[in-house]
Amino acid sequence: MRGRHSRAAAGLLSRFEPMRLTLEAIRSIFLYSQNRLIDLTKMAISRRALLKWSGFGSGVATALFSGRRLLGQTAGHGSAGSPHTIHAMGPVGRVSTEWFNPSAFLRTWNFSHLRPEERSRHYRETRRPDGTYLREYEIAAVDREIEIAPGVYFPAWTYNGQVPGPTLRATEGDRVRVTFVNQGTHPHSIHFHGWHPPEMDGSFPAQQVNPGDRFVYEFDADPFGLHLYHCHTLPLKRHIHKGLYGVFIVDPKTSRPLADEMVMVLNGFDTNFDVDNEVYAVNSIANHYMNEPIRVEVGRLVRMYVVNLTEFDLINSFHLHGMFFDVNRTGTATTSSERTDTIMLCQGERAILETRFRYPGRFMFHAHQSEFAELGWMGAFEATEPNDVG
User: Fold this and answer.
1) Average pLDDT estimate for 351-373
2) 99 with 162: CB under 8 angstroms?
3) What is the distance between the alpha carbons of residues 336 and 329, in angstroms, rounded to a whole number?
4) Residue 263 in contact with residue 169, Cβ under 8 Å?
5) Which CATH number do you get for residue 344?
6) In what order do the strands lie in the sheet with 338-340?
7) Closest-CA residue to 162 (of 266, 244, 267)
8) Given a cut of 50, is residue 108 above it in pLDDT?
9) Which residues contact 30 (CB under 8 A, 6 or more apart)?
10) Which of 3, 233, 219, 43 is nearest to 141 (CA)?
11) For 212-268, how does the pLDDT look when each residue is reduced to its tens digit (9 = 90+)?
12) Which of 251, 282, 312 lies at the terminal end of a domain, its last residue?
């Protein structure tokens, strides 16, 4: 039996190796279950099962990442040692936002977060005689390691060094010109959802851009709606799940009502490349909006551009506590099709969600697949009265 347990421990260690865990760290993790502590090195389980059982946002999962011991905890209801209390606390520690900040990404498009001189290197707009704009973008594929949870790193393929890639935004009828440079180590492309000539599709083998090469995509923004772009190089699931995707918003010529707008990309990360996600998030960093709730104003129209780009799972979902929202699937209409508090989306599916917060306070939102929520896909809105918004 000892040999089998040793093999199980070794197998468990190999599964955790991509998360940079040591055997000592694994041995220090214990799960409180049925009034006894279980040494996880004696259980041949997958990392995803471990995270699921412990609750990714819990102190148990955090200790898994940091190697801290959880011995001596009590399980009294509402006490510091209660598994429910631990889950509500979220992970210990924060992910650095020096390179990518989900809170800034939320309300950024066309590189609006950059200073004018830096922005002009990535985005330029020129008004045309008919009143539309030529919008020019510089997009580069770059290999980069990103932190998706405290101490958890993922070897990503990115557009402009971030996952998701920059949000592009135009108005129906604008001319879009994207200069794509492949600075990565594999062939890549950009495939835009929307109307465009076939030579701009970025999907066929002859349309792949090799490392060091460039290609210019040019087309008219059409139709209006909420769209996306992603790499279309084979194997497609690998190029997408590694992070090569972003949001492409096309506004109607008659503007939608003024609102507090935000972009939410539902994504997941297969950290050990077993075709099974271990971490889920909105805008890439697990539980970010639990640590940094999204501030909104009571009574003001809120418009969420929600895009599902989760690989390996058939569907993802969005559920908002304490209220309902109007749904405009794909955003290609100016009126909503339903009112609900939960929406399901397959990969590549998207919807514009609109609502108004009636009451001040904190409102949770998350995937309604409980497993996704426990593995990082949770967040919160902080609604305040107009005079209290800072």
Assistant:
1) 97
2) yes
3) 8
4) no
5) 2.60.40.420
6) 279-282, 260-269, 301-308, 350-356, 325-329, 338-340
7) 244
8) yes
9) 37, 38, 39, 40, 69, 70, 71
10) 233
11) 999 999 999 999 999 999 999 999 999 999 999 999 999 999 999 999 999 999 999
12) 251
Task: For residues 348 and 317, state if they share a domain.
Answer: yes
Same domain (yes/no): 62, 124: no
Cα–Cα distance measured from residue 281 to residue 62, given in angstroms and rounded to the nearest whole number: 16
Local structure of 127: helix, strand or coil: strand
Residue 40 CA to residue 8 CA, distance in Å, equals 10
- Core vs surface per residue 83-108: b (16+ CB within 10 A) or e: bebbbeebbeeebeeeebbbbebbeb
What tens digit of pLDDT does each residue of 141-188 get?
999 999 999 999 999 999 999 999 999 999 999 999 999 999 999 999
The dihedral built from the CA positions of residue 102, 320, 352 and 313, taken in this order, carries a sign that is positive
User: Please, what sign has the CA dihedral across residues 114, 117, 121, 127?
Assistant: positive
Q: What is the arithmetic mean of pLDDT over 26-49? A: 39
Q: Which domain covers residue 314, as residue numbers?
A: 260-388
Structure tokens at 96: 């650095």
CA distance 154 to 148: 7
Q: Of the candidates 230, 251, 272, which is a domain's last residue?
A: 251
The confidence band for 90, taking pLDDT boundaries of 50, 70 and 90, is: low
Task: Classify 175 as helix, strand or coil.
Answer: strand
- The whole-chain average pLDDT of the chain stands at 84
Contact 366, 319 (CB under 8 A): yes
Backbone phi and psi for residue 307, each to the nearest 5 degrees, phi listed first: -130, 130
Q: What is the pTM of this model?
A: 0.81
DSSP 234-255: SSHHHHHHTT-EEEEEEE-SSP
Cα separation, 338 vs 353, in Å, equals: 10
Q: Where are the alpha helices (DSSP H) in the chain?
A: 2-16, 23-27, 47-54, 59-66, 83-89, 102-106, 116-119, 236-241, 288-291, 370-374
* Distance between CA atoms of residues 287 and 73, nearest Å: 24
If asked whether residues 229 and 281 sit together in one domain, one would say no
